[in-house]
């Protein structure tokens, strides 16, 4: 592993194996997948669900029962406090957003890249403008000046479909600084990197990763 903050593909795939072991101990749901073709490149995948609050319209209320069935969210008991339902007297509805995260190696930059999608219960992708709005306040200043190079939509290098991407142009410098600051102790590259870039899109690592 280079002190420059970059990785070779072989080093990245070794880091993937180490990361998976750490994720398993942390009871996190990351798993490995492989690209098609001769190379069979290794990359990491995680699925997650989060709640999004939005103002309910009449159309939202009408669609809710259909969406619940589509996602298998059917209440067995109207008195069950865990049942998923629409409160018609409220102007706020809790809607699930499905996230899919991929950690892919970039040969051009020599670093990992975080790709992700976010889809609504009706299957429609959350648009880029809303993704930008969901970025935590602490990162908004950078987003304001680097919007089109910081968090953008790109074609997935293996799946060839649109994904959102956190651009890797500053990753090597960030990791070089991390290695310099921790020269007296070992650095888990992917854990250090993901704990820095993940929070930009609400992907946070638990404290178990630091144990």
TrEMBL record:
<dbReference type="GO" id="GO:0032446">
    <property type="term" value="P:protein modification by small protein conjugation"/>
</dbReference>
<keyword id="KW-0808">Transferase</keyword>
<dbReference type="InterPro" id="IPR007135">
    <property type="entry name" value="Atg3/Atg10"/>
</dbReference>
<dbReference type="GO" id="GO:0005829">
    <property type="term" value="C:cytosol"/>
</dbReference>
<comment type="similarity">
    <text>Belongs to the ATG10 family.</text>
</comment>
<dbReference type="GO" id="GO:0000045">
    <property type="term" value="P:autophagosome assembly"/>
</dbReference>
<keyword id="KW-0072">Autophagy</keyword>
<dbReference type="GO" id="GO:0061651">
    <property type="term" value="F:Atg12 conjugating enzyme activity"/>
</dbReference>
<dbReference type="Pfam" id="PF03987">
    <property type="entry name" value="Autophagy_act_C"/>
</dbReference>
<protein>
    <recommendedName>
        <fullName>Ubiquitin-like-conjugating enzyme ATG10</fullName>
    </recommendedName>
</protein>
<dbReference type="GO" id="GO:0000422">
    <property type="term" value="P:autophagy of mitochondrion"/>
</dbReference>
<keyword id="KW-0833">Ubl conjugation pathway</keyword>
């Amino acid at each position: 592993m280079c002190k420059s903050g970059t990785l070779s593909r072989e080093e990245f795939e070794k880091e993937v194996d180490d990361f998976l072991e750490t994720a398993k101990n942390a009871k996190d749901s990351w798993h490995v997948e492989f690209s098609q073709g001769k190379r069979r490149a290794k990359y990491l995948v995680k699925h997650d669900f989060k709640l999004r609050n939005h103002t309910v319209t009449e159309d939202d209320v009408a669609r809710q029962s259909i969406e619940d069935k589509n996602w298998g969210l059917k209440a067995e008991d109207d008195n069950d406090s865990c049942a998923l339902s629409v409160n018609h007297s409220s102007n706020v509805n809790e809607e699930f957003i499905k996230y899919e995260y991929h950690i892919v190696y970039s040969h051009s930059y020599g670093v990992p890249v975080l790709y992700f999608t976010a889809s609504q219960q009706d299957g429609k992708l959350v648009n880029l403008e809303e993704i930008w709005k969901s970025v935590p306040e602490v990162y908004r200043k950078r987003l304001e000046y680097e919007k089109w190079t910081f968090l953008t939509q790109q074609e997935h290098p293996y799946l060839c479909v649109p994904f959102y991407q956190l651009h890797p142009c500053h990753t090597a410098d960030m990791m070089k600084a991390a290695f310099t600051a921790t020269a007296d102790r070992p650095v888990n590259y992917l854990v250090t990197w993901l704990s820095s870039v993940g929070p930009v899109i609400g992907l946070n690592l638990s404290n178990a990763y630091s144990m």
